[in-house]
Amino acid sequence: MRIYAASWLVRELPEAADDANLLDNVRLLVTEIATNAIRHTISGRWRNGAFRVRMWRGSGGRIRVEVRDQGWWSGPRLRNDDANETGGRGLQILAAVATKWGVRRHLFGRTVWFELDPIAASMAYVEAPEQIVDQASGRVIRSYG
Fold first, then answer.
1. Separation CA 38–CA 81 (nearest Å)
2. Predicted TM-score (pTM) of this structure
């Protein structure tokens, strides 16, 4: 998945080949939401489970990625992180790095999507976000510092 995302990005946006931050951010976010589709839905638990990844350049040159899975109506949610937990931070990373993200529900499954502004994403530092905000409600989930 990470190689597919990186090779697609370099084909669509050749200048991304020299932008390690942008490549890393796209690979990281695609991997996070694809992993969530496998770990938390029947897409990864059921023998006939499947998910689909779509990537394209959207309006204003933004990079848009969608992962459609066989998830439930409840949808993914941001969790408050616990220092003792070894997982559960994928959506926090998504919220910190993506320009926009969200969830669309379908009759059978859902689509988790994100957009990255190539300029903003190339300057983003994943290691130390100041705060994580739930984009749906605008509520601060976690502050750092």
1. 21
2. 0.72
